[in-house]
Design brief:
Elements (H helix, E strand, L loop, with lengths): L1 H5 L16 E12 L5 E2 L3 H4 L5 E5 L5 E3 L8 E7 L7 E7 L6 E6 L8 E7 L3 E7 L1
Antiparallel strand pairs: 1-2, 1-3, 1-9, 3-4, 5-6, 6-7, 7-8, 8-9
Length: 133
Amino acid sequence: MKSKYLAPFLFLIPSPNFAGVDSFECTVTTVHSVSQEGKIVTDTEHLIKQIGSTFSVERNSGAIRGGYFINNKSSKTINVINEPSDNSYYVISISHGPVKMVGYLYIANHRKWPQKPFTYTSSGEYVYSGYCI
C-alpha cells in the first residue's frame, strides 16, 4: 500500500546519470599535448588515462565539472558566448592565481547528430576532443 503513495513522487528523485536539458554530458575520446619541440603528443601515460573520462557543462553558467583536467571550478570569470539552441556553444574561462590559465570549450551544438563533437584547450598546452550529448 505504501508504494501506491510513493509512486507519484519518484520523478522528484534526481538520477546521478541524468543528462538534463540544462547541461551537456561529454566524453573525452582523444587528448593531445604540445611537447617541448612544439609537436603534438598523444602517448604519454597521463594523457592516455584521460581517454574515456567524462564531464558535464551547465549551459547557462558554463560551469564545467568532472574530468581530469577539464574543469573551471577555480576560474575567476566564465563567459558563455553565443548559445542559441540551433548554434554552436562556446565557453571561455580565466583562472585565479598569479599564473592565469585560459580555458576554451567549443561544442558543435548545431550538428544534427545525436553526439555533438567538442574541442577543449587549456592555455593551448592540452587539447581535448570527444563528444557531448
